[in-house]
Design brief:
It is a single chain. The protein has twelve helices and twelve strands. The protein is an alpha/beta fold and about 350 residues long. The protein folds into two domains: about 5-145, 3-Layer(aba) Sandwich (Rossmann fold); about 160-355, Rossmann fold. Strands 9-8-7-6-10-11-12 form a seven-stranded parallel beta sheet, with helices on both faces. A five-stranded parallel beta sheet has the order 2-1-3-4-5, with helices on both faces. Helix 3 (about 65-80) packs antiparallel against helix 10 (about 280-295), helix 4 packs antiparallel against helix 11 (about 325-330) and helix 6 (about 190-205) packs parallel to helix 7 (about 220-230). The longest helix has 16 residues, at about 190-205.
């Protein structure tokens, strides 16, 4: 029997979602599905999420978009976007009858309008109103096949990942700390690329190492080039199937090859002292959610490490890039766990002010 991975937490016998979850369990089981996490008591971490994805044939998110549920749902969407083979042909449904997931859907629509998400999330994640519709909608998606994410091997960009190996270069003597920049690998707007290049250059000029997802394209590539051209130390991590899509930037001081996007994220966090969320897409949302979730859970990897969100104004729309995301985060338990700056010139000063002193 196929297995569905059921999300959502159950908070004791008086949890108001308990009855709805019971109906959902019955309908899924009667519809021919085995159920993983029926009791809603399993926590997801960077270390186990890929295994959970690999072991399921479909995913259902119940109402109530907690920080952890938001992270898991965005992670599934990012997996579809990046052609994760472990998600191939596996449908996802989100129960939004109470509107608790609307802030996420609005954010994804906002990012699609700004061009950092090329896909319509509804082609990959199916919103449903009640438990009685879940089985039918999962079956519909299986029958029509999940949409093509529109990403293919681009001539001149990707490279053979079998030849890529990890390497390390020691940090310089005047090193003041590493700043991980989460950003878009798909933005092509010259203004965004120029700001990305400037940010990388500013990091190097302030003796700050630049850690990234080691993508060659978009802002991610521009940030690395800015740091490299200014003589800065740069480190990055990537995974084989994305390297084959996007390639790797030149000049990385250190590179950490990892098997999936979660262990990739983990090594980037391990090697960073501060984090900047530059304008990006669903991947950047996923990464910031992971940071804040780890902060909330008291993970030692995030102890004392500030998170700065660069809420750049988009010239074409006049909108602040991360406004819907900041609004969504402000309603969670982590409203005080990040710093927002509106101007590029304020990013590095905010990082330096909040980051603990680091010994080289």
């Amino acid at each position: 029997m196929p297995k569905v991975r059921l999300s959502g937490q159950v908070d004791g016998s008086q949890d108001p979602t308990r009855e709805e979850r019971a109906r959902l369990l019955y309908m899924l089981f009667a519809g021919g599905w085995d159920i993983d996490n029926a009791n809603g008591d399993e926590l997801i971490t960077l270390g186990n999420i890929q295994g959970k994805i690999k072991g399921a044939d479909a995913f259902v998110f119940t109402r109530g978009s907690t920080l952890q549920e938001l992270f898991k749902a965005v992670s599934v969407f990012v997996g579809y976007q990046t052609l994760d083979a472990d998600l191939s042909g596996k449908p996802t449904a989100i129960m939004n009858g109470d509107g608790s997931w609307q802030s996420l859907f609005s954010l994804l629509e906002h990012l699609q309008e700004l061009g950092t998400i090329k896909q319509d999330y509804r082609d990959f994640i199916v919103p449903v109103k009640s438990a009685k519709n879940v089985v039918r909608r999962l079956e519909e998606v299986q029958e029509r096949v999940i949409a093509d994410a529109g990403r293919h091997h681009a001539e001149g960009l990707g490279e053979d990942s079998s030849n890529v190996q990890s390497h390390d270069t020691p940090l310089p003597d005047d090193h003041a700390g590493n700043v991980c920049v989460f950003c878009s690998a798909s933005i092509e707007d010259p203004a965004y690329l120029g700001d990305g290049y400037t940010l990388g250059k500013l990091l190097a000029e302030n003796q700050l190492g630049c850690v990234s997802g080691a993508g060659k394209t978009g802002v991610m590539g521009a940030v690395v080039r800015g740091s490299v051209d200014a003589g800065g130390w740069t480190g990055g991590s990537n995974v084989p199937h994305i390297i084959e899509l996007e390639g790797l930037p030149k000049g990385l001081s250190s590179f950490w090859l990892r098997p999936d996007i979660y262990t990739r994220m983990e090594v980037m966090i391990e090697n960073s002292d501060s984090f900047v969320a530059y304008p990006g897409g669903a991947g950047t949302v996923q990464e910031v959610l992971a940071l804040l979730l780890m902060k909330h859970d008291g993970d030692p990897l995030m102890k004392g490490k500030p998170v700065v969100i660069f809420d750049r104004k988009d010239e074409k729309t006049g909108k602040r890039f991360w406004a819907p995301f900041i609004d969504m985060l402000s309603k969670t338990c982590c409203a005080k766990e990040f710093i927002v700056v509106d101007e590029l010139d304020d990013v590095v000063p905010a990082v330096k002010k909040a980051m603990p002193l680091v010994e080289a």
